[in-house]
Amino acid sequence: MPRSISLITGASSGIGAQTARALAAAGHDVIIGYGSQREAAEKLAAEVSAEHGVVAHPVGFDLTRPAEAVGRLRSAVAAAGGLDVLVNNAGVNRRSPAVEEDLESWYRILDTNLTSPFVLAQEAARTMIAQGRGGRIINITSVHEHIPISGGSTYCAAKSGLGMLTKVMSMELAPHGITVNSVAPGETATPMNGVPAGHPATAIARPAIPAGRPGSPGEVAALIVHLASPEAAYTTGTSVVVDGGLSLVAAEANAAHAGNL
């Protein structure tokens, strides 16, 4: 039986790199998408190939140019021989008050975090439909798919938009055996969040999070691998929050005042 082929964007570090490792460990050939970190992607491809005996292709994606990103996906899929799993992981963060946000930044964040994931999912779905063997599309959003944060007008709009896109595509693609889900991490100990690769999440105190710490990339990757597996065939259109309980505590700061009206 041929191995599944998975494409992960933003796979040169953080959650994406751990997802590539975990999918390779599960026997998937992997297309390792990267933005600017070509050397890291090539090193990771060599690592997973040697360790797990899978085929790994590093492929550059400029997600600020959605049409070009689709072209890169087509070429990568043709070279790999198909596509069974797309993990739309790459993204950029930004904080700016809504009244100060500029259109150039708005478009850059929307192109990277929403438009490119849409067109990549669209093209992946077309490929999966043509193959006739089903598939998995997994969009990595954020806890801010569900809850807002000050200064996050552009970022939150993009992530919540990707979450709703996930639901719509899940309904449309279910007859083809393609599931579409989103994974919504809270704070995760990654280089994008200022944490060096390999630094243990358990060594970072976060008293405001019920779990008391941020998540690790591997904890998020484990969920992604499950959603990519045959065992997740009945899970579609859902957003799974992986945040250590962060999104549960919105009312806690006001709890001391609630009974003192």
Automatic annotation (TrEMBL):
Pfam families: adh_short_C2
Record organism: Streptomyces abikoensis
Presence of the UniProt keyword Oxidoreductase in the record: yes
Enzyme class: oxidoreductase
Annotated EC: 1.1.1.-
The family this protein is said to belong to: Belongs to the short-chain dehydrogenases/reductases (SDR) family.
GO molecular function: oxidoreductase activity
This protein's UniProt keywords: Oxidoreductase
Domain of life the protein comes from: Bacteria
Protein name: SDR family oxidoreductase
Signal peptide stretch: none
Gene3D superfamilies for this protein: NAD(P)-binding Rossmann-like Domain
TM stretches of this protein: none
InterPro entries: NAD(P)-bd_dom_sf, Sc_DH/Rdtase_CS, SDR, SDR_fam
